[in-house]
Every structure is written in structure tokens, then in C-alpha cells.
Amino acid sequence: MFRILALNNIADAGLKSFNPNKYSLSKDMANPDAILLRSFNMHDYPIPPSLQVISRAGIGVNNIPVDAMTKLGIPVLNTPGSNANAVKELVITSMLLACRNVLSAWAYAGQVSGTDNEINEQVEKNKSQFSGFELVEKTLGIIGLGQIGVKVANAATSLGMKVIGYDPAMTVENAWQLNPAVRQAENLEQVLTHADFVTIHAPLNEKTKKLLNAERIKLMRSNAILLNFAREEIVDNEALIAALNAGKLHYYVCDFPNNLFKNNPRIICLPHLGASTSEAEVNCAVMAAQQIQQYLELGHIKNAVNFPTVSMPASEGHRLAVINENIPNMVAQISSVISQEKINIIDLLNKSRENIAYNLIDINQPVTEKLLQGISAVKGVIRARAI
User: Are 92 and 115 in contact (CB under 8 A)?
Assistant: First the structure.
């Protein structure tokens, strides 16, 4: 029976997807085969030797020591697209809040006093200070055309907006889903100089940290609105505040409260609500749970941030998985160990990603402990298991 450790509260729909005849789940499971989590910080968490896979019910994996897991031969999975609709809707909501000055107008309406006639007189006198503008014919610039960015782009075009997007790593699948009216920029600067709104949907890494710095913010249109529902560190907060104070930007809307942003009338700061819908939580939980099952039962890898995507049809044989350093001659050495045991290989799939390689091998005899020990003894093999 597989042992699953849940380090956070996970939606019941995800937990119930595990077959109780095959899986045991607990919040304090010892020697787990898999860890299922959301925001739990694993950077100082002791990794049990039994651990085979980690699945994050969400997108960001900054709470997981990915590099360390790669060296241990542990795939780290996430759930891209599971919360895409929730984030899309919040981005559209935020654009409307900002362009119509809704929150400041709401605050004003809540503090006017007097008789109803007096309130009406004050409102008519002062409402012009909250005058905004419409989305129609305005240009939305999108940084990152993954599943969220594509949904935002398509929704914006349906509202009559012009859309320009930039993503140097856009997948063919996402390109097919993108509305043909969306213009694809050749570089980031092209997005910033053409957009009335700029929304960020890129992962946080060394290349995107402080991607929106003082130099790039200067390129943006005057009174543009910047939205960030990706990661706080993608924007240089000091440069952002300077641009707001100088009147360069009209509003900044984000999901990351901090002391620097408090009480700034040009910042709409939400308490990390991007994926906070019941539907998104269910989608994330179910996808994360299913990916664990696919890995443990079939050896398949989907949506890993540190391993290649791998799927191989089932055969009549017995399957084993081998994880090794991505160095020459590994497949030949592993195959040699198998042949020395007088075992035939029915099917074999080898894929690599950066410094790691993953092999699924179907053989015509049961996988024995002796075979696993022989493969594990090959220099460069990180781990081997029977499936």
C-alpha cells in the first residue's frame, strides 16, 4: 500500500480520489511514498528516504527545495492550469476596480454624512474626482502566455480590448488556444511601450526576478496600470513606489501585502486571492492527487518542474523506473545489468531534462531486489524502483 503524507489541508475531492485499497493518507504519515501539499515550507523539512514524489496543489514551488529534490531523484509536480480561470477572473476584476477608481469611490461613499438630500448634493458635487475610463479599445499587455495568460488574453479581447503578449517560451498547445486577434510581441519592451494595462503571468526565477525594474517601468505609458498576480519579486517594489509617487503609473494591483504598500492610495493590494475559489482548490487537489497516482502506479511524470514529461503505454511485461544523472552511456549500462540477469527488455523510454534522466523499462520477468541492487550499483544511477 502506498503511503501519502498531506502537509496541508487538501480539498476532499482530491483526497477521495485515492483508492483506499491502494493508498493510506495521513497528516503525520511516517515513511511516506509521496507528499501532497499546498503552501507548507519544505526548505527545512527532513526528507524521509522513502519519499518518491512531491505534488504541489498549485503553481508556485518556491516553498519546495527543488534543486535538492532533483539531486535525490524526486520529481516535484505542480498543477498548471487548475487555477487559471480563478486568476483570470480576478485580473479582469482588478482592471475594472482600477480604471473606474471603484475602491476610493466606495470609501468616499461610505463616509459622506447628512440627510439623504445632503448626501445626494455632496455626491453630485464630488463624483468627478472618481471619474475613470473604459476598457474598450484600451491595450492590455500580457507578460507570460501560459494557461493563465492565454485565458486573460482571450477574456480581454471579448471585452473589446486590444491585446499584445510576450512569451519566448510559449508552447504550441497554448498558441492554439490563443485568440488570433492577440498580437504577439517580439520583446518585453514592445509590450511595455504599447500597453495601457500590463499584467504579469510569468514564473519567478533568476531571469524574472525584478523583471519590472526602474528602467523598464520608465518605458511604460504614463498613467498605465500594472497588475501582478504571479510573484511579488518579479516587480522591483522600490522602483514601483517611485513611479507611483511621480505619477508615472496610475495604479498597481497585486496579491502581495507588505508594509511598503500599506495606505498607498495608488495600490490595490489583495490578500493572495488569485487561486482562492472553491473551484480552483478542488481542481488543484484533484490534479495533484491524480499525478501522484500516475507516478506511483505507472511511472508516468506530468507537470514536473524538475523532470521530463514521461508516459509509456502499458505492456504485458513488468515495469521498473530508473533515475540517473544525465551523462553518456547510462542506458547501455542499465541494459547490460538487465541482460546479465537473462531478462529481455520489452519496451524502454529514456528522457532527460538538464542534469537528470528518467527511464521507464518494461521487462519480461518480475523485477527482483537483486536486479534493483545491480542497477543501483551503476555509477550515476540515483534510484531504481519496481512499479
Answer: no
